[in-house]
Amino acid sequence: MGALEGKVAIVTGAGQGLGRCHAELLAAEGAKVVVNDLSDAADATAAAINEAGGTAVAYRCDVTDWDASAAMVAAAVETFGDLHILVNNAGFVRDAMSFSMTEDQWDAVVGVHLKGHFAPSRAAGAWWRDQAKTAGEGAVLPGRRIITTTSESGLFGGPAQGNYGSAKGGIITMTLILARELVRYGVTVNCIAPRARTPMTEAMPYFAAPESGFDRYDPANVSPMVAWLASDAAADVSGQVFIVLGDEVHRIAPTTIVSSVTNGGQKWTVDGLSAARSDLFAGADAGVPPWGGPPM
Is 185 an active-site residue? Predict the structure, then answer.
């Protein structure tokens, strides 16, 4: 029996790349999967899952569409009887330096990543809240999961990705907010930052598949973490962020206070802050922080 037997999952952006790998592994672990994508690639993924002995249906819609996202959740429930897992994965890049970026580049990328995460999450959360209310005061639903997708650009700030990195940073905050809001209904919400060979990175020589040995950037390497977070084994894990690549998983503390100064109950002055600078930075470099992810 798989780790997700009896579960129903939606995976957005599952027509190719990471999303397809996630959908295929969730199905292999026993989940019934709604494969979301804008294109008919959703049908290809669903067909491959069914041919492999799993259960999947395709659902084509734009996850930035409020009503379409709600309809997708309703379709999952109508088709399979419930919804337990939402994997928010859909996205693309339109890179440009801030001084060259167009409004369309900004709107498209922020829309698909930030709104495209929130609209399905809102719809799933509303369904679970209604279920809990129907079950009675204080009811907690078992096995409800949202897994979101950030990036190292969202964590550390990738140049030429003011749209993508900002949206991905917002997803980290959204993950924490959803985790706090939905905990009362038994829903966990966690976030992954995958580093893998996908349609967004496959042209970069750095991500090329090796001629032999372990393929560190195979997107299928990321999916076991998604399946684990979706499983009952991770029922007590929520509000967490992980970088996942190859055989590595790194847990991130996105926001921590590293140093503090106080002025003894008095308003700060410019001169006073200048004098306190060495305490505030405590020997650290005050310039642009270095990239903070695992070595490339």
Answer: no
Residue 265 CA to residue 78 CA, distance in Å, equals: 60
* Digit-coded pLDDT (tens) for 203-239: 677 777 878 898 899 999 999 999 999 999 999 999 9
Respond yes or no: is residue 206 known to be catalytic. Answer: no
Active site residue 168: yes
Residue 65, domain CATH:
3.40.50.720
Catalytic residue among 69, 121, 151, 238: 151
Helices and strands, counts by H and E, the chain: 9, 8
Report yes or no on 116 lying in a domain: yes
- Given the residues 32, 166, 168, 238, select the one marked as catalytic: 168
Count of the separate structural domains present in the chain: 1
Tell me the per-residue pLDDT of 146-171, one tens digit each, with 9 for 90 and over: 999 999 999 999 999 999 999 999 99
Q: What is the rounded radius of gyration, in angstroms, for the C-alpha atoms of the chain?
A: 21
Which one from 32, 69, 121, 164 is the annotated catalytic residue? 164
